[in-house]
Design goal:
By secondary structure, the chain is an alpha/beta fold. Helices cover 46% and strands 12% of the residues.
């Protein structure tokens, strides 16, 4: 029987012949304590706030599974991309010269003859950008300051190349395991063309260097990356770890023909404290029967390091893999695929040139969709000169444009940067319109409070929903991240909110949503407020189980449903 290492190496060959399915990370020993990693990340301690070697503030709450960057409230290292050279300084990792021999000896001893030694590199090129300036600014700067972003990305890439050279020279690993998330579970963060323009060549340099040293290149991203998966194979990635089931693994296997090993398939939805053994085992076995026959696949949890949050989950995943291997001689049967969710949104033809000479409000909607702030402001003034009321401009132009963009986002025809730029247009336009409205206030359809639940510091999804709600005429009270159930309910009660919107990315924090529902009932406001839940591990079944009202699959869908609910409440 082959060792795990031998099986892994067979998988890398287009016509390789492994003798069984590998079990998660069994072929890899992850070295996480090399001198560079210790220097860069060693001060990240649970229950503390610290700064990393780039100067980014890192928060690690005591009850959170991991640390997160903080770039709000004036803490961004790079608040102005046009002056990034004044504030952005790469860590001096060339000084990390001590401790390599002992680290290498311990790591090799742990590997033995059966495993490959993997050097670990967290915080990739894109992630480093938003660690320095924030997620929203990173994406909008790709549009608004492309030259400076190219320069900053090149600077970070040069640093990453020095980093990987030192790591390979001193640790002498078999594998480099690097992280960089490029999307959500449903879509890329940006258009594929934009990813190719800014990140493809830097990563070709990075992975090309790794391959030139005879080292295996593993890339982690628990994201939807189907539009660029062939690019990933082209630039030198050999294993994509973290492949979510939403990527439709069997379809990718047919497309790739062995050019890229896919490692994952066991999504976070199964990693719950209340997941029963039979549920975990059945989920894992279904995944194996669906994905293993296509070859060049390693079943594993989709996280970027070994181990589920709840150890019993790994136990039953591993048991399913062992049973599958024992039954390889049994003829397989095909299960229905688990495709990526298809968003049921009608495709709207882009207006574009057809309205250039048309109604001013139609032109305003299109300009907002395109993120053309100067044009949006000019058209607002033109509409006012024509005698249109501020409320007409808001509803017939601005909100119309945001709604159209929301539909495009839901159908994966628009991406996060376009949403952010449109939101900035909306903010600028409202700044001019609000003083002209009665009392200086725009009429809203209602009020909502929103936040990421306690124990979770992720805010990207929450911010997108906020943008769409505000763009649809909802007054939003943003509670931020790490929000307690008590804060949600107290705010909703005090501010007379018609909607509470709770976001979560971590399975460990999902239970906080249940507590929000319970507290709303105890506070006597359950019949007055609708509770929305959303985030990567959330599903309609979970929404139903905890007694929430609406599962938001994406920002556009959440906004449309919230507006409908709030309008109905206002009319009653």
């Amino acid at each position: 029987m082959m060792t795990p290492k031998e099986n892994f190496l067979e998988l890398l060959k287009p016509n390789g012949q492994p003798d069984r399915q590998l079990c998660q990370y069994e072929a890899l020993h992850m070295c996480l304590n090399d001198p560079i990693n210790t220097y860069l990340r060693g001060n990240r301690k649970r229950g503390t706030v610290s700064k990393d070697r780039w100067g980014t503030t890192i928060s690690f709450p005591a009850d959170a599974p991991g640390p997160m960057p903080v770039t709000t409230d004036g803490l961004a290292v790079c608040p102005d991309i046009t002056r990034w050279r004044e504030t952005v300084h790469a860590p001096d990792i060339a000084a990390c010269t001590e401790g390599w021999e002992a680290c290498r000896a311990a790591a090799r001893a742990a590997c033995g003859e059966e495993k490959l030694l993997a050097g670990f590199m967290g915080t990739g090129i894109f992630e480093q950008c938003h660690f320095l300036m924030g997620f929203e600014d990173t994406l909008t700067n790709l549009y608004e300051h492309p030259q400076e972003m190219h320069a900053l990305i090149d600077y970070i890439t040069t640093y990453r190349l020095l980093y990987v050279k030192l790591l390979i020279d001193n640790l002498r690993p078999d594998v480099i395991f690097s992280h960089d998330d490029w999307g959500t579970k449903d879509a890329l963060f940006m258009k594929p063309e934009m990813w190719r323009e800014f990140f493809k060549e830097p990563y070709r340099r990075f992975y090309g260097y790794i391959r030139s040293r005879g080292v295996i290149a593993i890339y982690h991203a628990d994201s939807y990356l189907v539009p660029i998966v062939e690019d990933m194979a082209e630039i030198g990635i050999q294993v994509w770890q973290g492949v979510l089931p939403e990527n439709d693994i069997p379809a990718l296997q047919q497309k790739l023909h062995g050019r890229l090993v896919l490692m994952g398939g066991m999504g976070a939805a199964i990693d719950r404290t209340d997941a029963a053994p039979e549920e975990i085992y059945g989920y894992a076995m279904d995944t194996l029967r669906r994905c293993c026959p296509g070859g060049h696949y390693i079943p594993s949890i989709t996280y970027g390091l070994p181990g589920a949050v709840y150890p019993h989950v790994d136990e039953y995943i591993d048991r399913a893999i062992a049973d599958y291997n024992r039954a390889l001689h049994v003829p397989r049967f095909d299960l229905p695929p688990v495709p990526r969710r298809v968003r049921a949104v009608a495709v709207r033809q882009a207006a574009g040139a057809a309205v250039e000479n048309g109604d001013v409000l139609a032109r305003l909607a299109v300009a907002l969709e395109k993120g053309q702030q100067k044009k949006v402001l000019t058209l607002c003034r033109e509409a006012l000169e024509q005698g249109r009321t501020p409320q007409e401009i808001l509803s017939g132009g601005l909100i119309r444009g945001m709604n159209d963009l929301g539909e495009a986002f839901s159908a994966n025809r628009a991406f996060v940067p376009e949403m952010l730029m449109a939101a900035r247009c909306m903010t600028a336009a409202l700044g001019e319109l609000k003083p002209l409205m009665t009392g200086g206030n725009a009429k809203t359809v209602g009020r909502a409070c929103i936040g990421t639940v306690r124990g979770d510091m992720h805010d990207i999804g929450k911010n997108l929903v906020k943008i769409m709600l505000e763009g649809s005429g909802v007054e939003v009270i943003d509670l931020g991240v790490d929000v307690t159930p008590e804060q949600f309910v107290e705010t909703a009660k005090r501010q007379r909110c018609g909607v509470i919107a709770c976001s979560s990315l971590l399975t460990t924090t999902m239970g906080e949503m249940r507590r929000v529902v319970t507290l709303a009932r105890e506070a006597g406001i359950r019949d007055q407020v609708k509770i929305f839940v959303g985030g990567a591990p959330i599903s309609q079944s979970f929404c139903d189980e905890i007694g929430a009202d609406y599962y938001a699959e994406d920002a556009g869908a959440a906004a449309r449903e919230a507006v409908k609910i709030l309008k109905a409440r206002k009319a009653s």
